[in-house]
Design a protein that fits this description.
Layout (H helix, E strand, L loop, with lengths): L2 E7 L1 H14 L12 E7 L5 E8 L2 E5 L18 H16 L6 H26 L9
Antiparallel strand pairs: 1-2, 2-3, 3-4
Length: about 140
């Protein structure tokens, strides 16, 4: 039995996001490129993350379901990792940055995505040092 947490980004949510940005910066109207998407995140019976998905226009992500294990019992991934999705977004913005659309904002986004990957990798290294990577142990 799966415990399902479902969240849907609605147009109303997007409009509220734009309004919040406008409230903080009253001088200009900001439009976002965030499109609607739907996601479900599953937990196992112990409350641990156990897969899920995200779907939207031109987007389908099936998240890793369960642990990979350690050593000889290590399994092949059955879904995407957050790190992979961030790396995919990073390469796309780097592609823009290498074109006529290079700009400060792309450079900042690249830096922040690289930083996110750094910290997620740091977390993995710390878990590896504690011999808990690939498990649900904290």
């Amino acid at each position: 039995m799966w415990i399902i947490q479902k969240w849907m980004l609605t147009l109303d949510t997007l409009q509220n996001y734009v309004i919040l940005i406008r409230h903080k910066n009253r001088r200009r109207k900001i439009k976002t490129m965030i499109d609607k998407f739907e996601s479900e995140n599953y937990n196992d019976l112990d409350g641990n993350p156990a897969g899920g998905y995200v779907v939207g226009t031109g987007l389908r992500i099936d998240w890793q379901n369960g642990t990979l294990g350690r050593g000889d019992e290590r399994k092949q991934p059955n879904g995407a990792f957050v790190e992979t999705v961030i790396a995919a977004a990073l390469q796309r913005i780097q592609y823009y940055q290498s074109s006529q659309f290079a700009c400060r904002e792309n450079a900042l986004a690249i830096t922040k995505l690289e930083e996110a990957l750094h910290w997620l990798n740091h977390r993995t290294q710390q878990r590896e040092q504690r011999n808990v990577e690939g498990t649900h142990q904290v």
